[in-house]
Amino acid sequence: xxxxxxxxxxxxxxxxxxxxxxxxxxxxxxxxxxxxxxxxxxxxxxxxxxxxxxxxxxxxxxxxxxxxxxxxxxxxxxxxxxxxxxxxxxxxxxxxxxxxxxxxxxxxxxxxxxxxxxxxxxxxxxxxxxxxxxxxxxxxxxxxxxxxxxxxxxxxxxxxxxxxxxxxxxxxxxxxxxxxxxxxxxxxxxxxxxxxxxxxxxxxxxxxxxxxxxxxxxxxxxxxxxxxxxxxxxxxxxxxxxxxxxxxxxxxxxxxxxxxxxxxxxxxxxxxxxxxxxxxxxxxxxxxxxxxxxxxxxxxxxxxxxxxxxxxxxxxxxxxxxxxxxxxxxxxxxxxxxxxxxxxxxxxxxxxxxxxxxxxxxxxxxxxxxxxxxxxxxxxxxxxxxxxxxxxxxxxxxxxxxxxxxxxxxxxxxxxxxxxxxxxxxxxxxxxxxxxxxxxxxxxxxxxxxxxxxxxxxxxxxxxxxxxxxxxxxxxxxxxxxxxxxxxxxxxxxxxxxxxxxxxxxxxxxxxxxxxxxxxxxxxxxxxxxxxxxxxxxxxxxxxxxxxxxxxxxxxxxxxxxxxxxxxxxxxxxxxxxxxxxxxxxxxxxxxxxxxxxxxxxxxxxxxxxxxxxxxxxxxxxxxxxxxxxxxxxxxxxxxxxxxxxxxxxxxxxxxxxxxxxxxxxxxxxxxxxxxxxxxxxxxxx
Length: 686
What we know:
The protein has 26 helices and seven strands. By secondary structure, the protein is mainly alpha-helical. The chain has four domains: 8-153, Glutathione S-transferase Yfyf (Class Pi), Chain A, domain 2 (Up-down Bundle), CATH 1.20.1050; 187-252, no CATH class; 255-347 and 541-618, Neurolysin, domain 3 (Orthogonal Bundle), CATH 1.10.1370.10; 355-537, Neurolysin, domain 3, CATH 1.10.1370. The strands form two sheets. The protein has a five-stranded mixed sheet, sandwiched between helices. It has a two-stranded antiparallel ribbon with strand order 1-2. A hairpin with a 5-residue loop joins strand 4 and strand 5. The longest helix is centred in the middle third of the chain and has 32 residues, at 292-323. It is globular, with a radius of gyration of 25 Å. The termini are far apart.
């Protein structure tokens, strides 16, 4: 393809904060950006490797930072992977498929280059003779670790095999992701009779009708979320419709079965090449956990108490079924619905009473932003003059307490067929003192878009996700790091969820909650009794939540504790059957074989682990929650929502990003290492 001279990706963006000019970027521009970007970066890295001067921090480490984190390829990757996740199309999927293996080979050429590794190793061995500051020393250590974990210390034959594996894994990850997007759209359930939507709110019914119309379907469309138990199951009173929705959700991903087996086998081979017993151990060794056995022991220790709690909850739900005059045994598709009935009976809480008080804009402005204002002194000014890749994206300029600009916060809240499921944060521009870049941070959710003219009313679970993802955004916005590789959320996977989980504490903080739970028509605040019932009702369901989560986290571990020889083979059988049998056996052996609760993600749509991001790392949520629960106790003991607490958390932890060892940051903030007991108390696991 001939070069396009007007490609906006070939030069730094002239837009404020260097936000990509998405309205000018075509899909052909992304392709050219990858091509020219790899060429430019390869030249820059080669110049570092070929220099005859003795290595020093500037000519090697700083030079690598500039080569890897500035230029055409960096701009292209940030822009492309943002839009491809949130608003893909066939052309973008083709770009992803074409360039994933090429980018893997490009990265291998850098991090398997013995000349670069030798320069880094020499600097590391002589580190005591240099007056490195804290950020410089940690960055040097991270580069050394990154080269070694990439295979730079392997012999030539093993490096060649590793390159081949990495290229194939890149193809498989991209294909898995595409299939998940396809399946989540195909799994949507169409209902023709409005009577079968009993229990859905008027707004929910209108949204289902609008979703069906958008796809050219007659009737009402119930869409899926990434995880197994889609939110509609809480409201649907028609049992057969619940069953259809449930089965459609959990039977996704069969087309990914062959890819799963190959991904697991290749990762197990990578671990062996790198000298580890298995891939879980390989991943944990570079995280705060330290070893796969530490992860396994902590997670499996929680299983008995979680199962006891879940079985007690199941008994309460079965009683609720009988009390309603029905005569059937609780099934997986009944759980969420009858959990709401129990909450209504035992806590006096009906989500339908709360829904009119949870309007999206109000939750964002008077809840999420309000808490950040009180805790950190931030101010948010919407910038309708700035454009992104879709009309749904909104952009705010974030200012600090002294009026200075921190960066941009961009949010894309509504679901659509072109967006992958789930919720996530990603940077469009990473903060760095070295490059002078100010952060531009994205949040993506998949809230059902209301029908035209209707308010965007959200669920309590949506509220939790809004606060959670904004916690990630604060981590990126507050970054004050010199080097781009370690800025923002560039921390170990089992630490990254910690700041976002802490931000969830403000959902039910009385001052915050009273400020955002307001009726969407009258603006009247919800009465205290309703708010207290909502909070009290969250105490029910810890058993379900922990079993659902532990099943997924331990399933991830079981897959990645296999050696290459232990990975199941299809051998002429249906690969989907092989994967399903492995899942069932693994959950039974762990003690999590409870038919009424499926793993939060079954293997076929477990994008966290099989597209690479959280491979052998889904345990991170519970690992981070140990720090979170301990931190929440600290906030409560020290007065809660106030500037002094927020400023301390920001200065000692959020602003550090990954520029210093994260657990050292935690100890400086908390005054001691984290304790496990607050987490156990939180979930009734003590």
